[in-house]
């Protein structure tokens, strides 16, 4: 067969058509990137296997701890020939019982403190002359020899009045704000210990000026910090205080005392003193004791719950509701 010769023009036209046809051809091969499998990316099966492995290790550790606990309980002495294995030892309830007993004791202590302030209203319908009166053995007052020797140049009052002069008796009524009355304490003062301080207390109690005594702090098991406000005309000069530390010792609870080293408040017409809650013999020779609580130490014990042990800050305000001079 004889081939037809194409002109140059037609040949170029066919080449152009062929190129256009090639450009318009759509490929049948998928050239889009494949989608990622979430299981392959997150390795969910691997995480599940890791979780099972961690759970198995945790169970093995718990079993090991139980075995160590059992060995520590029996002291390492195990009978390998026993057929019955020792079961799981239940947790001891002793700490819970001890804690519960502490709560009960605390509630009982608070209830007992409330009972101390409750007065009886029982009427026995018995005539007063039929009641049996128990007479207390009174101790005869004897004037200390050191007082007679110290004030020998002065004209002493009659012996019957020396007791009121040297041993005045006062009382304080404590009240816990917003709660209840705390009770009354009776205090016997020793004039020979510090005459100026005793005189300031006697004047305040005789005038029944209850606002002149402030309760500042309370240290449970130690003492109660108080302050006596002194009028300007009755001001005590720190350098002219007359005192005798041998007159009274700190060998019993309820001892009233003040320190000579910490009386800067006297310049502000105030006397800082403390009431001990237990015997403090370590204060002998360091603080001047001028009085002692003759009755009402239980009232002081009942107020110890209202003071913080370290700082002495009062959790409830304590005030003096009444005060007076008895003897």
UniProtKB/TrEMBL annotation:
Protein name: Peptidyl-prolyl cis-trans isomerase A
Molecular function as annotated in GO: peptidyl-prolyl cis-trans isomerase activity
InterPro entries: Cyclophilin-like_dom_sf (IPR029000), Cyclophilin-type_PPIase_dom (IPR002130)
Keyword Zinc: no
PROSITE patterns from the UniProt entry: CSA_PPIASE_2
SUPFAM superfamilies assigned to the protein according to its UniProt record, in alphabetical order: Cyclophilin-like (SSF50891)
Highest taxon in the source lineage: Eukaryota
């Amino acid at each position: 067969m004889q081939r037809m010769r194409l002109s140059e023009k037609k040949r170029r036209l066919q080449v152009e058509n062929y190129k256009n046809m090639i450009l318009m051809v759509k490929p049948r091969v998928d050239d889009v990137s494949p989608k990622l499998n979430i299981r392959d990316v997150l390795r969910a099966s691997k995480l599940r296997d890791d979780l099972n492995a961690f759970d198995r290790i945790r169970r093995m550790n718990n079993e090991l701890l139980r075995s160590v606990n059992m060995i520590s309980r029996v002291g390492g002495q195990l009978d390998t020939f026993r057929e019955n294995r020792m079961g799981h030892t239940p947790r001891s309830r002793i700490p819970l019982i001890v804690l519960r007993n502490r709560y009960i004791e605390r509630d009982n202590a608070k209830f007992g403190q409330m009972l101390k302030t409750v007065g009886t209203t029982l009427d026995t319908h018995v005539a007063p002359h039929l009641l049996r009166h128990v007479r207390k053995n009174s101790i005869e007052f004897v004037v200390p020899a050191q007082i007679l020797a110290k004030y020998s140049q002065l004209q002493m009052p009659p012996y019957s009045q020396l007791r009121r002069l040297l041993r005045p008796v006062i009382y304080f009524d404590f009240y816990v704000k917003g709660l209840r009355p705390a009770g009354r304490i009776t205090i016997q003062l020793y004039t020979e210990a510090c005459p100026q301080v005793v005189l300031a207390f006697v004047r305040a109690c005789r005038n029944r000026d209850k606002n002149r005594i402030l309760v500042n702090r309370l240290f449970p098991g130690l003492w109660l910090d108080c302050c006596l406000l002194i009028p300007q005309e009755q001001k005590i000069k720190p350098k002219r205080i007359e005192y005798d530390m041998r007159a009274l010792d700190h060998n019993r609870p309820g001892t009233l005392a003040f320190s000579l080293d910490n009386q800067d408040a006297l310049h502000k017409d105030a006397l800082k003193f403390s009431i001990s809650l237990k015997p403090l013999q370590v204060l002998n020779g360091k603080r001047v004791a001028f009085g002692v609580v003759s009755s009402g130490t239980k009232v002081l014990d009942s107020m110890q719950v209202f003071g913080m042990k370290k700082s002495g800050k009062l959790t409830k305000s304590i005030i003096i509701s009444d005060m007076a001079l008895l003897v």
